[in-house]
């Protein structure tokens, strides 16, 4: 009998087998969600000089020894202006947020803490310390300083930094090209009429959605019948892509031709069985730099295996430092039966409660019950050695949605 890998062992095999793609240049406007492939440095000091953080008055804090104090306004400095005068004792300048500080000033007071008087004078009602409400030259970034490193996911905040340092073109990692193939004589295409003897091909589309959610537009190759020659033809087309996802035909039925056919095409198979439920007949192989996942045909198994193995692989290829789905701890609201053995993934709904989250099964958990997946916020992970959970037990839940990822799988199996 073949060795069953643990989920974490299989994840390690996958991550050791994939390489980050090469780089390409994109416009800043097209960079959201991509991964930076270059180091980015500041091209000047930001702010370029000491500026006011408030609308108010730039003044000499030493003039505020007696409060209220009356000061003479000698200049009006707006954002974009350059000050022309130096403050002498007893003088101040009206200043707007973002405007440069005048010579001689060492603090700003908010307009709310002042009262305008006649004859260009202002009454200051609050003493402030030297440095109050000033944004210092270079406090945001210094000229030449590294502000972003390769592997940074480009978020809206990162785009803001790139625009600040005038990166109109950005080097990012290429996204792998992904092809999806379903296999099975029983499958009915989305465009085919309903046939009561057939099974609708849902896997191609669910997998498509999973790939799209990672920011990659996959190519659907359609359905290959359980026939070695037809399968070989489809697989050869699939191997024109960086990543091939094959659904179905990975178990040990006499018509499960995926394994022998992939091997006949020269693939090195790195695993075939993983100790998990659902999804144990999941396969992974390599031909040169191309990788192939053989995902189980059962709709839930296919999706759960994608989450465990394909997500980290695609994220690594795209250059992300963080490859795993985010996990959280939650309180199970009911008992969960578990036969010690395989690591089990239970589809759950999450609800916020005092102190954390409550997790509740989405219902019948059969590996063909796609509705249990459609409703799920996450997968509760039941370790292989667990004898089951009791209501109130804490469980680790892998979130199924979101753009925030983490460094490790984050669950005990
Ligand atoms: P297999 O892994 O090929 O033995 O398939 C296991 C189960 O999943 C069978 O009941 C198949 O009919 C079903 N199945 C296989 N491929 C798909 C697919 N693309 N969409 C929906 N169900 C599928
Ligand atoms: Mg099949």
Note the topology:
Elements (H helix, E strand, L loop, with lengths): L6 H11 L5 E5 L12 E2 L9 E2 L3 E4 L9 E9 L13 E5 L11 E4 L3 E4 L3 E4 L9 E2 L10 E3 L7 H9 L4 E5 L4 E6 L3 E2 L10 E2 L2 H11 L5 E6 L3 H11 L4 E5 L10 H7 L3 E4 L4 E2 L5 E5 L2 E6 L3 H19 L6 E2 L1 E6 L10 E11 L2 E6 L8 H5 L3 E5 L11 E6 L5 E2 L7
Helix pairs in contact: 1-6, 3-6
This protein binds adenosine monophosphate and magnesium ion.
Short description:
By secondary structure, this protein is of the alpha/beta class.
Can you describe what's shown?
The protein is α/β, with parallel strands linked by helices and 413 residues long. It folds into four domains: 7-17 and 176-317, Molybdenum Cofactor Biosythetic Enzyme, Chain A (3-Layer(aba) Sandwich); 24-46 and 147-173, Molybdopterin biosynthesis moea protein, domain 2; 51-135, Molybdopterin biosynthesis moeA protein, domain 3, CATH 2.170.190; 324-406, MoeA, C-terminal, domain IV (Beta-clip, Beta Barrel). 18% of the residues lie in helices and 30% in strands. The protein is built from seven helices and 28 strands. The chain has helices spanning 7-17, 156-164, 203-213, 228-238, 258-264, 299-317, 370-374, and strands at 23-27, 40-41, 51-52, 56-59, 69-77, 91-95, 107-110, 114-117, 121-124, 134-135, 146-148, 169-173, 178-183, 187-188, 199-200, 219-224, 243-247, 268-271, 276-277, 283-287, 290-295, 324-325, 327-332, 343-353, 356-361, 378-382, 394-399, 405-406. The strands form eight sheets. Strands 7-4-6-5-9-8 form a six-stranded mixed β-sheet, with no helix packed on it. The protein has a six-stranded mixed β-sheet with strand order 16-13-17-21-20-18, sandwiched between helices. A hairpin with a 2-residue loop joins strand 24 and strand 25. The chain is elongated and about 95 Å long. The chain starts with 6 loop residues before the first helix and ends in a 7-residue tail after the last strand. The model has no long low-confidence stretch (mean pLDDT 96).
